[in-house]
Design a protein that fits this description.
By secondary structure, the chain is mainly beta. It has a single domain (2-118), classed as Immunoglobulin-like (Sandwich). Helices cover 3% and strands 40% of the residues. The protein contains one helix and nine strands. The strands form two sheets. Strands 1, 2, 4, 5, 7, 8 and 9 form a seven-stranded mixed beta sheet that branches. It has a two-stranded antiparallel ribbon with strand order 3-6. Strand 1 and strand 2 (8-12) form a beta hairpin. The longest helix has 4 residues, at 70-73.
Length: 124
């Protein structure tokens, strides 16, 4: 089960899910992804380099879609993690496109805890 609520993603551990990121420019206009633009979705226990990436999933080039597969989360503990999604443009520019934080929420040293892995009942 996938639930997206404000800036939080809730996913049942081991479930497949598709995340659609609709990108906009600072002026509010839709961003059209170039064929070589690529999204990266990353999940860590803490939002810093010392915390290993637990999930690191690239999107399809030129697409705002990230596909999470069973194997991406099945071995993780149920809990709250920090996640973000970055756009790497064809020109090599990097932009964090999610979560969209404003004001003091932009300070990156706190744990966002915005990716919640929920327990499953049917365990193979």
């Amino acid at each position: 089960m996938l639930i997206i609520e404000e800036q939080d993603i809730y996913l049942t551990r081991g479930d497949d899910a598709t995340l659609q990121f609709d990108l906009t420019l600072e002026n509010g206009e839709a961003y059209e992804m170039a064929a070589d633009d690529l999204l990266f979705f990353t999940v860590r226990a803490l939002p810093n380099r010392e915390s290993a990436a637990l999930v690191s999933v690239p999107g399809t080039p030129g697409s705002g879609v990230i596909v999470l597969r069973h194997e991406d989360t099945v071995a993780l503990e149920v809990g709250r993690y920090s996640a973000d999604c970055q756009l790497v443009t064809a020109q090599g520019r990097v932009h964090t496109v999610w979560p969209k934080l404003e004001g003091s929420g932009r300070y990156r040293e706190r744990n966002f805890k915005n990716f919640v892995l929920m327990p499953e009942v049917t365990i193979p």
